[in-house]
Design the sequence.
């Protein structure tokens, strides 16, 4: 057996072994088994992924695994990259779980303890996620996908005593199953048209399929995988489920599971279906742009820290989808070089996003564990009580904002470069679409910066806004170790994306859409081939740090050694010292943006004025409440649900309890089947 | 409006000769002085004269003086009015918020020795009863020339 | 030959560092004269900085290390921008390391540092300034990137040396409608980013009308001097960028000697002073826009940028 096969066996062993150990272990030991078991599964998975990228994963048939069809596993560089990312995130999340779940048991928590079935499901979830990209037949893929969905549902419902968790779980379950239905339908149509179950055969037959079938498969799989990735309008489960899940699970879902939606799009729609008509790329570009802008807008006005991060996940998936759409468009209309740059941008953003989002959710989990609070309006002052977590969240926020020195800057830079070099060869379509895409990416970057400044500034700086925030203490060493590893990875990706260079090169060489040798070279200096364009994140960082040192030294010299330093009270315009409630909250910080975009966001404001009994002119109290629901959910889902309910009510009339009617339905159905089968 | 600007030209009165300063003033503040105005309880007569100081006719900015909004960015206080009970704490807080070296200039008879309001209810005293005053400008209200002369002693311009 | 790029970049940094307060002084002096006053002289900002350097340093209770480090960080990002942007020369050794997108990123990084410092004070005004500044920065981002896009199209590169050198070699490429639209968009962007009228009034005393000043109300002494110097440098660098992108006369190249560097310095000084006088004179006629009208101005700027891009596609002369 090859190296990759050994790694696969080890991963499945670790996953299932950890699950069993958790089930049989005493309560005290369960967090350790679950956490370290998940980390071990992730580590072996990461090795499997890297091995897959470097040398591929040969086809393995396991006939006994699923009835009738058997299972097929095979993988290439694309699968390997996603597996490696998932594995790395699982390692960090697993180590974090050890401390997080233990804190829940010993009572220092802000959340319920994790029940045994949730802890047991965690390694299984990671194992399922690692094996999905290795699936090489429709049955295997669908089975593993559903395993992943079920285990993640169990994990989301871990804290099921709370009603919001149950509602979130229901919403998540329904959307996942609807997406699953779309995926199954798409893959079945593809397989039926090709005549075979295996992906290799399907890829070979894709050229000969009629265009309408390919388009149908494309649309169905984009709907299915898009809902998993959190693309608008099928994103509503993301900001509901991710905040309610335990934080390490949120990290896994946001940084690893949504990537599988992107993997589905890349594998099925780019790699297997091959080159398609222009509207495919336009569809992805448009959906990605709308998702990115809408989700980041919601993040910019969100006051719940985890909801903010969840919307940020949706935004980044939108950006990646835009990159994939650009790849499709540019490979037919533009130059091959710009398509290669866009593809590099997409994959690099997958890696970068996984790093900073995992770190972000884990830090939010640390805050939740220490204070019991998720609401930014009540947090604050954590820089004094939890300095390490503050620094680590700062690194994640810097990455999420797409600024230089952050982990997300290089991939956004690459995406912008691919778009600005797309024309003029591309013609009118590109000339109209590309500027709007650049505008969408720019607005996303700006609003993302606003959201992260709010999250970090309001949540961690200045003074605590509530007693729970004032009583915070730094979290346990395992949690800090997990977060620090994530931060180290973010920092390395920010200044030295060269570590991914060899992996990305192999991935790019295996995708059919981009058969050009013009791949951007990622070294200490990023250089775009054939096109003028270069940037060095490491040297930029060095310049800024050098500037800080120089300016600091100059200030020191100019003030002759620093001068006297006095600690003084805040300038409160001469009144009594400002209380911590007088600080700007997240709601007030986002209010200008809310006002500018209120047509899109549609906040619901209720004002109640109650008067004195004696006179209508004397006001006794005024109460204002403002809620921000997801506008898509309110305006799109509610009518759809009402229509479905209406249709169901109509069908209910057929269930009239009369046995004669039911016998009649049965006979009619049999008749129809006989007529159809006789053709 | 452009024509109006060019027709009007510069309206500032020519600068009188620089005054001879007496008493200790921080040498750091020569050339550039930023002041935070505090109204401790005045009738606003002195405020009108101070706004006249910074108007185009008198133009105190040419001597390096400017009014700032935050005491943290100021080099001292320009206090008008008698110190009332309500403003005593605020005046001290403003002084404390100002970084050193700092000066206090009391403008008007009320600020210097309670003026009209000596012995009134709600009056704590003159500014020198609350803070250490470096320079006083007497008058009810003092003219902009008198105010500027005192400020020029600090900036030496 | 290889010493000249580093040397000319050093000259560039010195020119920007020393000249920025003088530029602020010139703008204040122009305003004063147009208002009928005499004014304090163009070196007054230097006198103020010298005085501030000798003042007491204050650390307000309740702030964290972010409050102390933000002015340093702001100055450092501005110096990094000054090193990359072609002010005196196009031959900066850092030109390969940062293109126009990186410069925009550095600009945003400085804004973020100051906004975090404003939030860190925990006062209502600090938060208010941070919230407004971040809103404007977020909404101005599409306009900037559109203008960058429009400028990169004819040159097929977003590296600044390439853009400025191309414009220097073919001056007629600047006289196109696309260029004019991009100039208009960038001018509005510069006004918004540096906090000049009509977006923000740098001379206001009313805290509720402040955007940039509200974030720095707590800074005293040397830190305040650093913030003021960094803001002046930002204005200088952005005006120099605006000038050199569209009128790159006199900029020194990779092979100019000391004479070229001196000529480049004088040329950029002249251009930037002209632009600064223009900005200051225009400010006399403008009142500050209401905060919720500023997005309309920025949307207009975005539209100009979009038109610039479309014009470069459809009206481009073949290279």
Sequence:
């Amino acid at each position: 057996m090859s190296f990759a096969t050994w790694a696969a066996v080890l991963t499945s062993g670790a996953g299932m072994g950890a699950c069993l150990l958790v089930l049989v272990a005493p309560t005290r030991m369960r967090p350790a088994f679950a956490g370290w078991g998940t980390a071990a599964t992730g580590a072996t998975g990461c090795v499997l992924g890297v091995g897959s990228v470097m040398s591929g994963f040969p086809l393995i048939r396991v006939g006994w695994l699923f009835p009738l069809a058997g299972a097929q596993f095979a993988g290439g560089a694309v699968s390997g990259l996603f597996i490696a990312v998932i594995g790395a995130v699982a390692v960090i999340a697993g180590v974090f779980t050890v401390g997080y779940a233990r804190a829940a048991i010993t009572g220092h928590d802000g959340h319920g303890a994790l029940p045994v079935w949730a802890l047991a499901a965690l390694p299984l979830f990671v194992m399922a996620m690692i094996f999905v990209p290795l699936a090489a037949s429709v049955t295997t893929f669908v089975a593993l996908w559903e395993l992943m969905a079920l285990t993640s549902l169990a994990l989301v419902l871990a804290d099921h005593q709370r009603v919001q968790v149950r509602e979130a779980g229901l919403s998540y379950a329904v959307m996942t199953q609807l997406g699953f239905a779309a995926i199954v339908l798409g893959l079945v149509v593809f397989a039926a048209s090709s005549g075979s179950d295996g992906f290799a055969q399907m890829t070979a037959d894709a050229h000969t399929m009629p265009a309408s079938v390919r388009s149908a498969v494309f649309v169905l799989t984009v709907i299915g995988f898009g809902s998993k990735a959190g693309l608008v309008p099928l994103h509503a489960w993301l900001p509901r489920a991710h905040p309610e899940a335990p934080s390490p699970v949120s990290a896994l879902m946001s940084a690893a599971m949504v990537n599988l939606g992107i993997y589905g799009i890349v594998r099925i729609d780019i790699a297997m279906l091959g080159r398609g008509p222009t509207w495919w790329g336009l569809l992805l570009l448009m959906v990605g742009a709308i998702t990115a802008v809408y989700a980041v807008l919601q993040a910019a006005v969100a006051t719940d820290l985890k909801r903010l991060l969840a919307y940020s996940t949706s935004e980044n998936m939108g950006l990646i989808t835009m990159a994939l759409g650009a790849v499709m468009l540019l490979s037919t209309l533009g130059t091959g070089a710009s398509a290669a740059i866009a593809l590099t941008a997409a994959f690099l953003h997958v890696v970068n996003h996984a790093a900073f989002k995992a770190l972000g959710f884990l830090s939010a989990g640390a805050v939740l564990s220490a204070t019991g609070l998720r609401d930014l309006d009540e947090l604050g002052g954590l820089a004094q009580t939890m300095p390490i977590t503050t620094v680590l969240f700062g690194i994640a926020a810097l990455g999420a904002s797409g600024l230089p020195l952050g982990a997300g800057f290089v991939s956004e830079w690459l995406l912008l470069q691919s778009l600005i070099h797309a024309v003029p060869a591309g013609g009118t379509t590109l000339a109209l679409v590309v500027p709007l895409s650049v505008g969408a990416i720019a607005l996303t970057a700006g609003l993302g910066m606003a959201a992260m400044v709010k999250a970090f500034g309001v949540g961690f700086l200045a003074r605590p806004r509530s007693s729970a925030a004032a009583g915070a203490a730094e979290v346990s060493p395992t949690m800090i170790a997990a977060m620090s590893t994530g931060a180290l990875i973010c920092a390395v990706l920010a200044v030295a994306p060269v570590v991914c260079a060899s992996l990305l090169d192999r991935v790019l060489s295996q995708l059919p859409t981009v058969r050009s040798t013009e791949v951007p070279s990622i070294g200490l200096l990023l250089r775009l081939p054939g096109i003028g364009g270069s940037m060095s994140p490491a040297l930029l960082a060095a310049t800024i740090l050098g500037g800080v040192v120089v300016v600091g030294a100059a200030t020191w010299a100019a003030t002759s050694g620093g001068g006297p330093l006095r600690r003084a009270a805040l300038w409160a315009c001469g009144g009594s010292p400002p209380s911590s409630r007088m600080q700007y909250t997240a709601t007030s910080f986002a209010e200008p943006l809310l006002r500018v975009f209120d047509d899109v966001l549609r906040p619901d404001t209720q004002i109640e004025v109650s008067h004195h009994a004696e006179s209508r002119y004397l006001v006794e109290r005024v109460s204002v409440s403002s809620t921000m629901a997801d506008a898509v959910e309110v305006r799109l889902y509610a009518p759809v649900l009402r229509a479905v309910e209406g249709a169901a009510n109509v069908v209910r009339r057929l269930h009239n309890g009369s046995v004669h009617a039911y016998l009649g339905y049965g006979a009619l159905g049999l008749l129809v089947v006989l007529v159809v089968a006789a053709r | 409006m452009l024509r109006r600007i060019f027709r009007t030209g510069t309206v500032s009165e020519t600068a009188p000769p620089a005054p001879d300063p007496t008493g200790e003033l921080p040498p750091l503040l020569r050339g550039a002085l930023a002041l935070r105005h505090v109204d401790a309880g005045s009738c606003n007569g002195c405020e009108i004269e101070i706004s006249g100081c910074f108007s185009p006719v008198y133009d105190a900015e040419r001597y390096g003086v400017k009014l700032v909004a935050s005491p943290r960015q100021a080099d001292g206080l320009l206090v008008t009015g008698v110190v009332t009970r309500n403003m005593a704490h605020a005046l001290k807080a403003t002084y404390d918020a100002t970084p050193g070296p700092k000066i206090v200039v009391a403008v008007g008879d009320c600020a210097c020795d309670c003026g009209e309001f000596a012995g009134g209810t709600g009056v704590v005293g003159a500014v020198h009863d609350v803070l250490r005053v470096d320079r006083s400008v007497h008058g009810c209200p003092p003219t902009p020339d008198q105010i500027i002369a005192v400020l020029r002693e600090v900036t030496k311009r | 030959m290889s010493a000249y790029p580093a040397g000319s970049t050093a000259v560039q940094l010195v020119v920007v560092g020393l000249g920025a307060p003088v530029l602020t002084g010139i703008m204040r002096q122009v305003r004063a004269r147009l208002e009928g006053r005499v004014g304090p002289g163009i070196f007054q900002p230097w006198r103020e900085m010298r005085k501030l350097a000798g003042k007491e340093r204050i650390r307000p209770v309740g702030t964290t290390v972010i409050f102390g480090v933000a002015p340093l960080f702001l100055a450092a990002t501005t110096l990094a921008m000054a090193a990359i942007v072609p002010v005196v020369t196009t031959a900066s050794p850092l030109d390969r390391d940062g293109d126009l997108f990186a410069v925009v990123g550095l600009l945003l990084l400085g804004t973020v540092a100051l906004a975090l410092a404003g939030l860190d004070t925990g006062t209502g005004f600090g938060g208010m300034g941070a919230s407004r500044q971040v809103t404007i920065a977020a909404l101005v981002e599409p306009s900037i990137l559109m203008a960058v896009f429009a400028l990169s199209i004819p040159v097929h590169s977003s590296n600044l040396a390439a853009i400025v050198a191309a414009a220097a070699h073919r001056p007629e490429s600047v006289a196109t409608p696309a260029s004019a639209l991009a100039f208009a968009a960038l001018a509005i962007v510069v006004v918004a980013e540096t906090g000049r009228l009509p977006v923000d009034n740098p001379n206001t005393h009313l805290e509720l009308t402040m955007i940039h000043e509200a974030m720095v109300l707590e800074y005293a002494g040397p830190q305040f001097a650093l913030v003021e110097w960094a803001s002046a440098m930002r204005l200088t660098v952005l005006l120099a960028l605006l000038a050199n992108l569209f009128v790159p006369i006199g900029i020194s190249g990779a092979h100019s000697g000391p004479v070229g560097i001196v000529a480049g310095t004088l040329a950029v000084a002249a251009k930037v002073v002209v632009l600064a006088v223009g900005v200051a004179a225009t400010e006399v006629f403008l009142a500050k826009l209401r905060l919720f009208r500023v997005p309309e101005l920025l949307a207009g700027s975005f539209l100009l940028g979009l038109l610039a891009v479309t014009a470069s596609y459809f009206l481009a002369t073949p290279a």
